[in-house]
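Lecture 7, part B: from sequences to assemblies.

Below are the input chains for today's worked example.
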Amino acid sequence: MSDAMLAETITIKGDNGDEIEAYLARPLDTTPRGGVLVIHHMPGYDEGSKEIVRRFAVNGYNAIAPNLFYRVAPGASPDDAAAAARAQGGVPDSQVVGDANGAIEHLKSLESSNGKVGVIGYCSGGRHTFLVACSLKVDAAVDCYGAFVTRTPDPAWGMTAMTPLLELAPNLSSPLLGLFGADDQYPSPAETAELEAELKRHGKTTEFHTFEGAGHSFFSVERPSYRSEAAAEGWQKVFEFYGRHLAS
Amino acid sequence: MCTYLTEKVVLDGAGKGAAGWFRLTDGSVYVDHPTHARYTHTLNIDFLNPAEGPGARVAVELTEEAARALAAAITAALDHAPAGIASENQP
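Predicted structure of the full complex, as structure tokens:
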């Protein structure tokens, strides 16, 4: 079996039929395989996010990351686009769901798709992952340290766009793998425990892991928050989870 | 954590970005993950001219201590100069 893959920037139909940019990586072998939607973090559609997309392709998945900030700053560098998106108050949740739907449809349209799709997101993308998995039909979801899923930010912070999503819990359409840091405060271990309890109350399948010695953003190899042991174990759990739920 | 809280300020002046000097019209100030500084969180300032596109941006990422020292230095420098000399209505 060949290990050749293709990674490229493409255009997909996002929310409201808008054309947006996305990064797609896929093995060239057309054996049926699952797809993975990667939702980038607040710092945007950056090199780290694209590397994650390629990592899924190397491991046998079709993977795609839509640029959630494309409308705000088409063609801009990722950090400038993230700054522009922030200056506008972030992107609306409904738009994220629409863009995710377009990306999922694209994955399912690929010749090698087995019809199954997982979603994964980091930081704000972790919150978006829960949002997407509760709003659309997916087969497996991985929330990496998404904050403000169960709790509202302190009103003094003025983060009015970040509404909690816990009321969506009954709608979760797939098993949820949660990967968190014990030293993280956003989300804190108490918040993730609250989320897991609520999901279990609704009969949902969850697998939550909280890594000691790790805080927020422990997967980010280019940041000082990187924790190699937690990241290595976390990646192993991601691939085990997707192996169970996205196989043909 | 990712915060969406952004303090916005109207600016009047100029900044030098990747494509050279441009007029500044807006500023964003917020605490969040930096893009480049070797910290998990920093105080970030974007000096902007949105009319010239998202690339018209000078970005600064500072520790809390550095940001407070900068704010104090700005105030001190202005206090030590003749009042109004750098005003938009300067003589």
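Note for the exam: Chain A has a mean pLDDT of 94. Keep this in mind when comparing with the next example.
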